[in-house]
Amino acid sequence: MGFVIAATGLRAEAHIAARSRGVRAVSGGGNTARLEERIRQLVGQGGKAIISFGVAAGLAPQYSAGACLIGGEVVCGGVSYSADPGWSASIKQLICGADLVKVAGVDRPLARAFEKQDLHRASGASAADMESHVVARIAAELALPFAVLRVIADPAERELPQAALAGMRAEGRIAVGPVLAALACSPGQLPGLIGLAVEAGRARSALFRCSDLLGPHLGFSDLG
Question: Does 169 score more than 70 pLDDT?
Answer without folding.
Answer: no
